[in-house]
Amino acid sequence: MSKPMKLHKHAVKTVVVPAAGLGTRFLPATKTVPKELLPVVDTPGIELIAEEAAELGASRLAVITAPKKQGVLAHFQEHPELERTLEERGKDEQLDKVRRAPSLIRAVPVEQDKPLGLGHAVGLAEEVLDDDEDVVAVMLPDDLVLPTGVMERMAEVRAELGGSVLCAFQVEPDQVSNYGVFDIEEVDTEAGDVKRVLGMVEKPAREDAPSTFVATGRYLLDRAIFDALRRIEPGKGGELQLTDAIELLITEGHPVHIVIHDGRRHDLGNPGGYIRACVDYGIHHPEYGPSLRRWVAELLESD
Ligand code: G1P
Description:
By secondary structure, the chain is α/β, with parallel strands linked by helices. Helices cover about 35% and strands about 25% of the residues. It is built from ten helices and 13 strands. The strands form three sheets. A nine-stranded mixed sheet has the order 5-4-1-6-11-8-12-10-9, with helices on both faces. A hairpin with a 7-residue loop joins strand 9 (about 180-185) and strand 10 (about 195-200). 1-O-phosphono-alpha-D-glucopyranose binds near residues 179, 202, 214, 241 and 242. Keywords: Nucleotidyltransferase, Transferase.
């Protein structure tokens, strides 16, 4: 049974988490372990996403998985045997850790049997939505956006301006070809962190990019996105792109805005970004942080 909409503080019930990728940038670790389960300090990346989704007030995590990636869903199920053992041994702290993921949010699986692109993956989630859901959030588990809270800000902007709201970061010009890039104009709001989107293009060449503001893994999309996703053709890389469905909505007059996030971002999908995320979480960790800071400083000094 899903919770009624009025119990969702930001009127977002479902967060879609595309997790069907092969994790090729992370081999050999991802030969048998889904990259979404790799730990940042001690917590799998996807549990951090679930925590952020729960903070937003969502109650359902629609996890898009590939046929051989069931382990991702298992992380959100109870584990009675392990729980019993920990209970018998009086390991309460560890028991809490085991129980945490299932208690945060209800994860439901959506299987994507062919890797046809992010747009295709998101489109599949429509089947799990209730009739009263007029918006869906998408969080890409490769992107850690810190500090959390940007989704709440995006929900506020949607409440004020309607339509769809995306999270943006500004990157160096030589980085734009890795992202969905926004064509933007100023908008008259009190806070300076919102811009109107005039167009969006997936991974353009540097010279064709309309700006250096890029999409970064957090989307609040009007339900109209599903209809748009059914109407797009394969785009960049021969895949169905979420960016192209958003661009289609814009050309049809649908309002799209970005919230420019002033914070940090880590790309967990590749070892370089993942190491940074571990260092960032590690040095801020109450237990490991103080000694890690000292050790890193010493290491850098002696290097
Ligand atoms: C995806 C999106 C892209 C976005 C990026 C953010 O690309 O297609 O528009 O900017 O995520 O991380 P991917 O990194 O999956 O190739």
